[in-house]
Amino acid sequence: MSRKYDVAIIGAGAAGMMAAFTAGRRGRSVVVLDHAKAPGEKIRISGGGRCNFTNIHAGPKNYLSENPHFAKSALARYTPADFIAMVDRHKIAWHEKTLGQLFCDDSARDIIRMLLEEMRAVHVELKLSCVITEVEKGADGFRLATTEGPILATSLVVACGGKSIPKMGATGFAYRLAEQFGLPVTETRPALVPLTLEPNLLGELSELAGVAVDADVSCGKTRFREALLFTHRGLSGPSILQISSFWREGDEILLTLQPDVDFLETLKAAKRENGRQQVQTVLSQQLPKRLAQYLTDAAKLERPLADLPDKALSSLAERIRRWPIKPAGSEGYRTAEVTLGGVDTAALDGRTMQAKTVPGLYFIGECVDVTGWLGGYNFQWAWASGHVVGESL
Ligand code: FDA
Q1: Which of 330, 347, 376 is the last residue of a domain?
Q2: Are residues 145 and 281 in the same domain?
Q3: Ligand 1: nearest atom to the Cα of 172
Q4: Ligand 1 test: best mutation among 21, 42, 193, most atoms within 8 Å of CB?
Q5: Transmembrane stretches, by residue range (predicted)?
């Protein structure tokens, strides 16, 4: 005998739990199924364990999608202020770190606890370590074959995320379900991910592993100004993760190190004031020491400033202002924070997240072709899309 529910939700992540208690508050019987042993595992590890749970500036411009208008409705109907109100109600202390990014003061686990309490309050059933082997639509609703027995539900919400971090249980199951029901899926690729370098360049930059610097990083017309980190594999740090969502194989990225500093002026002034100084000494007043050393060595300028023509200083300054690098690739889904692309928004109704051709079937969160920038935007999308589906069930 099947257990019968109004709503079955696949995935006890950010979007699935939000949808569950929103529908539960409206009197719907809801079951959430997850193959993992614990709910909200990505919330737990997010934001370095403190969960960057939203961004107060979140708006449609912070999302990538083949249809940039699609996210507007959900984002407008559930705002960062709405989520903050729930966090405050649960007395979870938080702070703004930078650029509108809100983090828990204590632990990301507080957010998971809050979502579970909200679910419990409206009697949502949560089935963990539950593997779904088959999904079918019949005249009476969606029939799910699971390791916890058969389940029948009037509506099915797919909230099982993307492909990032397979080690944590990401499966791409949402895309297979979309395809099973005839919904198109746009090209998916790892995003918010460190970029790798080809072996020669990596060898050349190896001494910089661990060095972080304020940088402006651009790819085509898109640019982000945040920290950049040199690593043993290539480039990382917030500015690189941001640009990785826009970068494609073969593209060059352009680095501007310490964008607020006019290096030509700095070097010329230092030469005027004390020509006996080494280039590297002057650079290391503005840049990390190892980076200053690398740039000086690479330009072959290990001499006192007085011995160097302005032309040499000018080409060094230009290198710091416009350093082109061609990444070889990315670290892939192993470390990507999100999946770019997903269930084609053209197949969904943006006000309800319902599949246009399959009544009762909904897709929310990361599995949809809506991908946020780094900085709390992806959770805001998960909350907002979860909320609107919960309101429409
Ligand atoms: P999510 O992946 O959270 O949940 C999907 C659920 O479905 C999981 O519980 C999974 O076990 C389950 N599932 C998958 N396949 C299944 C199957 N076949 N059967 C049953 N269950 C299945 N974003 C942000 O805004 N701020 C931040 O600080 C961070 N930090 C961060 C750090 C790291 C390391 C990562 C990897 C990601 C982030 N993110 C982030 C991104 C954020 O975690 C992500 O956008 C959301 O978790 C997406 O929420 P969803 O609910 O859509 O999927």
Answers
A1: 330
A2: no
A3: 15
A4: 42
A5: none
Q: Is 142 helix (H, G, I), strand (E, B) or coil?
A: strand
pTM of the entire predicted model: 0.97
Structural domain of 342? 3-189+338-392
Q: What is the dihedral of CA 219, 224, 230, 236, to 10 degrees?
A: -90
CA distances from 333 to 168, 188, 290, 346 (A): 11, 11, 30, 25
Q: Which atom of ligand 1 is nearest to the CA of 161?
A: 53
Provide the residue type at 127 as one letter.
K
**Last residue of some domain: 279, 311, 330?**
330
Instruction: Indicate the pLDDT class of residue 1, thresholds 50, 70 and 90.
Output: confident
Alpha carbons within 13 A on the beta-carbon side of 151: 28
Kindly report, residue by residue over 41-97, the tens digit of the pLDDT.
999 999 999 999 999 999 999 999 999 999 999 999 999 999 999 999 999 999 999
Q: At what angle do helices 80-89 and 377-392 cross, to 10 degrees?
A: 90
For ligand 1, mutation pick of 378, 381, 383, 389 (most atoms within 8 Å of CB): 378
pLDDT of residue 164: 95
Task: Establish whether this prediction's ipTM goes over 0.90.
Answer: yes
* Residues having CB within 6 Å of any atom of ligand 1: 10-16, 33-36, 41-42, 45-47, 51-52, 132, 159-161, 164-165, 169, 171, 173, 337-338, 365-366, 376-379, 382
